[in-house]
Amino acid sequence: MSRSLIVAANWKMNGDSALIDAMIAKLSQVSFNDNVKVVIAPSFPYLDKLNSAVKAANLSDKISVSAQNISEQTSGAFTGEVSTAMLCDLAISHTIIGHSERRSIYGESDTLIADKVAVALAAGVTPILCIGESEAEREAGQTEQVLAKQLSAVIEKTGIEAFANIVLAYEPVWAIGTGKTASPEMAQETHAFIRKFIAASAQDIALMLPILYGGSVNQKTSEALFAQPDIDGGLIGGASLKADEFGTICQNA
């Protein structure tokens, strides 16, 4: 059994109803391979609209809708937060957790991210868990140490078995929104390390674990990246805000 290829769109704090309409129209024209899945993560106010548009276009078997973040709390007096129960009420199946912008701008720790992963899993929501090193950490030769620490925090919280229900996204921080992209060979080397790290605890889970690459992926770079043996798709930022380009990336997959 082979791993699915996942093309995930992270719209960040961008997008509107017009983008939803354009994206659905474009993706309705794409001929997907059977093993390709698409996940789109708009901002919270657009989750229900996008989900409804996916269903109306009869694309539910190919496109899943994801939140960009989730609270580690399940309910209560936490103004501005969104719970897994709310996602489930809207039939939202995925949530991004631990994106580098959440880690760096909003100070989310490895421990907090692990708590969020646990809460999502408990609710039956699939976490897209982001990990990655900064440029300084890569230049210092600390990439594997940083990734191991980020993964270990989640493993200690949830157990390795939980990774059977997680999607990983490796995003080198230095490549996000900068136009820099790791070479396919560099990205493959890091993905292979991640899979080997998981395999040390559970080889069967590691073999089936989808590991996406993120970091200035576009229609020109996606094909070579997706062809690497341990790269199972991409978490796409800026290029996912252009319906034609994102459609091409999905077609490349």
UniProtKB/TrEMBL annotation:
Top-rank taxon: Bacteria
Record's keyword annotation contains Isomerase: yes
Chief location bin: cytoplasm
GO molecular function: triose-phosphate isomerase activity
Entry keywords, A to Z: Cytoplasm, Gluconeogenesis, Glycolysis, Isomerase
Gene Ontology cellular component list: cytosol
A matching Pfam family: TIM
Chain sites annotated for binding substrate: 10-12, 177, 216, 237-238
Localization per record: Cytoplasm
InterPro entries, per database record: Aldolase_TIM, TIM_sf, TrioseP_Isoase_bac/euk, Triosephosphate_isomerase, Triosephosphate_isomerase_AS
Pathway given in the UniProt record: Carbohydrate degradation; glycolysis; D-glyceraldehyde 3-phosphate from glycerone phosphate: step 1/1; Carbohydrate metabolism; erythritol degradation; Carbohydrate biosynthesis; gluconeogenesis
Gene Ontology terms: biological process: gluconeogenesis; glyceraldehyde-3-phosphate biosynthetic process; glycerol catabolic process; glycolytic process
Subunit comment: Homodimer.
HAMAP family, per the entry: TIM_B (MF_00147_B)
Family under the similarity heading: Belongs to the triosephosphate isomerase family.
Protein name in UniProt: Triosephosphate isomerase
